[in-house]
Amino acid sequence: MKKSALQVARASYMPKMPKALRGQVIAVEGNATQSVADQDAIKNLFPNTYGLPLIEFQPAKETREYAPIHTGVILSGGQAPGGHNVIAGLFDGLKALHPDSKLYGFLMGPSGLVEHKYMELTADIIEEYRNTGGFDIIGSGRTKLETKEQFDKGLEVLQELNIGALVIIGGDDSNTNACVLAEYYAKIGAGVQVIGCPKTIDGDLKNEQIETSFGFDTACKVYSEVIGNIQRDCNSARKYWHFIKLMGRSASHITLECALQTQPNYVIISEEVEANNLSLDDVITRIAQIVADRAAAGNNFGTVLIPEGLIEFVPAMKALIAELNDFLAENAVEYARIKRSEQRNYIISKLSAKNAAVFASLPHDVARQLTLDRDPHGNVQVSLIETEKLVAEMVGAKLKQWKEDGLYVGKYLAQTHFFGYEGRCAAPSNFDADYCYSLGYNAACLIGEGKTGYMSSISNTTAPASEWKAGGVPITMMMNMERRHGEMKPVIQKALVKLDGAPFKTMAAEREIWAKETLYIYPGPIQYFGPTEVCDQPTKTLQLEQQK
Ligand code: FBP
């Protein structure tokens, strides 16, 4: 494969690691843990993996002999920068346990395990992928591992390859499945440990123990670079309003982080919309007012950041989506038989009166996008809903009305953008390169200690990497019961933006002035070589959250 000069130079980057992981480790165990909510239900469902203690690794005083352990690895769900370094760290960690340990990659996500598609990851292959973006080393997929048949089928290939541990690199849903699998293999005495790693650009897999998911840092820096470029263009031509939708599923972490990095004229935070019980019209009115005020000051331009999950948080839309989710799950076969031209009326006829009215009031495209297939975990595919166009058009319609009423004079030309896929496979920032390598290496340590049902955890991440803490968090500790596909299921609780958290409060304290004045920040591209303050800074979200 031909490589760019940067890729060649980057290949030799040695990820920085916590001191504790630089030699052999001992596991220091804390007290028994419990799930964040629904303790009885989760305990019943996970009798073998519930209540395990938190683990922190410390440097070992005496060296120990480890037997070789063959391990499988799966990349699950959406790509996130740094996945290759998790695998590289895991490989190096397993080899440090015993040079005869082998690493197998299951191909194209969890389906590789079920369909017995795999490859051995040798030192030569790993070398090619160190510090690179993407998940192409083994590919990724969204197959949900949830049935006994899938687990048993997977076990066949694990036993055939003499694999004693499986590492699942995924988001909240994939780590939930990792835990279900750990529980099942523990229950049947399969002799396979299962360890999870926190991946997702969305930043919504975090809690007291897991400070951030990998990929969030790089993806936000890539989006912020491009938002900065748009802002500079916007401030040069002074003729467009740019509506920029950002990935992130339900949570607005990416949007909030990008706002902190770039200071746009307005940023919508879905969690705030819900908390304040705002209608879509309230949100549109606020933006139109900012456009009108800036126009009055001679500024017919600006930028608005929109989280891709917005629609789900507008209370009326949320109720509609919840009913649609259940309806489509229960009537999938019948719905599939309805002609496309009749689907809209069919849905309207089946929904409760209130939700049918909301559905009918939506532009046809947006309404249809809400009925598209859910992903395998039952989530609405919000990246397919063109909220940026919806918002830009609705603001335009409101301004037109205000113009007719003599309330607004100004020009309004809108451009829309959606940034998501652009950032998911970027070459990892130094932070993600270091964090991911440590997560993978640490997963090997958890395997060496015989643990199962744990998520690899690296914390104290705003300190220099040498001071990071390494250990494991029982996955059941992060779980609660939620409704999915019409049924109550145990799932890892998604972390949404906290309105009383420092990142939101910092943005909220500044936003009036961002709206009025033009205070754009142009962050520029990620830097890999140079001073620490340019190359090694974690996200503003992490810095503000960890500020004591
Ligand atoms: P994960 O939750 O699997 O990490 O995926 C994140 C994400 O990039 C979301 O931000 C986005 O909504 C979704 O994946 C898009 O899914 P797909 O890759 O299937 O188009």
TrEMBL record:
| Record pathway | Carbohydrate degradation; glycolysis; D-glyceraldehyde 3-phosphate and glycerone phosphate from D-glucose: step 3/4
Question: By its UniProt entry, which Pfam families does this protein fall under?
Answer: PFK
| Cofactor(s), names only, from the UniProt record | Mg(2+)
User: Where does the UniProt annotation locate this protein?
Assistant: Cytoplasm
Highest taxon above the source species: Bacteria
- Keyword flag Metal-binding: yes
Which positions does UniProt annotate for substrate binding? T200, I201, D202, K239, Y240, M247, G248, R249, E308, Y421, E422, G423, R424
SUPFAM superfamilies in UniProt? Phosphofructokinase
Q: Which UniProt keywords apply?
A: Cytoplasm, Glycolysis, Kinase, Magnesium, Metal-binding, Transferase
Q: Which residues form the active site?
A: D202 (proton acceptor)
Its Enzyme Commission number(s) read 2.7.1.90
The reply on keyword tRNA-binding is no
| Catalytic activity from the UniProt record | beta-D-fructose 6-phosphate + diphosphate = beta-D-fructose 1,6-bisphosphate + phosphate + H(+)
Which residues are involved in binding Mg(2+)? D172
Q: How is its activity regulated?
A: Non-allosteric.
Note the site residues: Important for catalytic activity: K199
Q: Where is the Phosphofructokinase domain?
A: 72-316
**Residue sites binding diphosphate per the record:** G78
Write down the position(s) of the site called Important for catalytic activity and substrate specificity: D173
Q: Which terms in the Gene Ontology molecular function aspect does this entry carry?
A: diphosphate-fructose-6-phosphate 1-phosphotransferase activity
Q: How does it assemble?
A: Homodimer.
The task this protein performs is described as: Catalyzes the phosphorylation of D-fructose 6-phosphate, the first committing step of glycolysis. Uses inorganic phosphate (PPi) as phosphoryl donor instead of ATP like common ATP-dependent phosphofructokinases (ATP-PFKs), which renders the reaction reversible, and can thus function both in glycolysis and gluconeogenesis. Consistently, PPi-PFK can replace the enzymes of both the forward (ATP-PFK) and reverse (fructose-bisphosphatase (FBPase)) reactions.
* Assigned protein family: Belongs to the phosphofructokinase type A (PFKA) family. PPi-dependent PFK group II subfamily. Clade 'Long' sub-subfamily.
Which HAMAP family does UniProt cross-reference here?
Answer: Phosphofructokinase_II_Long (MF_01980)
Q: Report what the protein is called.
A: Pyrophosphate--fructose 6-phosphate 1-phosphotransferase
Q: Which organism is it from?
A: Porphyromonas canoris
